[in-house]
Fold this sequence. Notes:
This protein has 529 residues and is mainly beta. The protein folds into five domains: 8-114, Sandwich (Immunoglobulin-like), CATH 2.60.40.10; 123-261, Immunoglobulin-like (Sandwich), CATH 2.60.40; 279-369, Immunoglobulin-like; 377-445, Immunoglobulin-like; 458-526, Immunoglobulin-like (Sandwich), CATH 2.60.40. The protein has one helix and 43 strands. Strands 22, 25, 26, 29, 30 and 31 form a six-stranded mixed sheet that branches. It has a five-stranded mixed sheet with strand order 2-9-8-4-5, with no helix packed on it. It has a five-stranded antiparallel sheet with strand order 16-11-10-19-20, with no helix packed on it. 30% of the residues are buried. Residues 1-29 have low confidence and may be disordered.
Amino acid sequence: MMRKKKPFFQSGFIALITCFMLTLSGYAQAPCTNTSISSFFPSTGPVGTVVTLTGTGFDLGSGTSSVKFNGLEAASFTVVSATTIQATVPQYATNGAITIITNGCSATRAAFSVMIDNCNEIYISEAYDATEGNPGAIEIYNPTENTIVFNNQYVLERYQRIGDPTPVNNYILTLTGSIGSEETYIILSGDAPCGIPDDRPTMGNGINADDEFKLKKNGTIIDVLQVQGGNGDAARGYNMIRRPLAVGPSRNYSNADWIWLQTETCDYLGFHDDQPKRTTTQGATICENTSYTFTATSNIITIYTYQWKTLNASGNWVNVTNGGNYSGATTASLTISNIPASFNGNQYYCEIGAGNCTLPGDAAQLIVIPNLPTVIASATATDCATQTATVTVTSTLPATGITYSIDGGTPQASNIFNGVAASSTPHTITITDTNGTCPPVTGTITVAPVVTLPTVIASATATDCATQTATVTVTSTLPATGITYSIDGGAPQASNIFNGVAASSTPHTITITDTNGTCPPVTGTITVA
């Protein structure tokens, strides 16, 4: 990310105005004691990191209206509960305290550390050569927030040809003085061009095409410029300007990082346009056991390395390595396969290697939705009169975000279906995730038809003379199961045969009962003479 200077309106100026307004109105807010931040996790991360705040009273009164990172509003925040808030680190956030406003009261906890690039060195930002005569200049730029004092540490070397092993004699300059924050430092090469004072440090005569410049610190190369265009006079008169989105310094020269103007101009000498470098990654909500690819999208021109990072349970950002669920850990695209539910809430960012720097990209969060479970359902006994039952889905499911349907009918929020027709064909129940993240699941249930009990028909054998009894058999057409028989109010039995029925002039009463209890019993009589 690009470092930004704090605007004056983020300073004590605002506090002065607020105090003045309170004095005029005669109002002073009572001490706020019910809202507090006890901790937050993680304690460091790049822009886009989701930070979990733990405390008390986050839902008091009108609720939480603001979360700020060192005075800058969070990109977004969610009040999860009275004790938990999740807030996203905004672009341009800087190191400092996290502050929340709840019901007009503020609570603060120090201090969150925002990861930024480590591009904290000067670099060559422009080379100028005039067509006529010897005017030339090399421009150095300081991208940092601090003045850099050279202190004899920095040396600029000029080589006659690209790739030469040693610099040209007397074309070695030790930089003197200092360079201010986001300012330039001009070194002359020959006559002073473009109205530049001629008391600037000088390195030989005008720059030639095919020259190479190396900027060293304490004897180590930190930046390289290779002048293009060949080595003839036709290549004289040009500007080479480092692109605003090129990362510097860089020990590895890349043509893509530079703008080549084939006619010299003074328009750009003395200042450098260094634009914010940003690498973004989109978060995702996906279904368990699926795959997803995070892609780092960067405005940086020349990128040498990629390394994906993830936040571990200890609050440390660690390298993602290939294997298991991960592939592409050192490319622009990180693929996570067969994602388990345990990855829910994981955070990732891509660290870019460009120039001599590493630059953290924006963080992104992975939300994993559990797969919908197997459909489990039960049905009440089929009603004999209506031949219907009530079906209830009993699978363990979230309270919201789910709809139910049966046989392709209209989805509903309730897991209960009334008046489901009895049929020998199973009914299909569908459970759907209304977010559309996970695929629907289906299952079946059969509502068994029940048969209305028929008229009781029975027959008796001839009465035994010795015992004065007979055997009675119910001959009505009935299901093989789910039926019981009784005679004269006796114990129900599964058999349709009654032995030893006493002869009597009074008819015996036979009762047939549906054991499902939905159809009323039927009765009939038979006389054993």
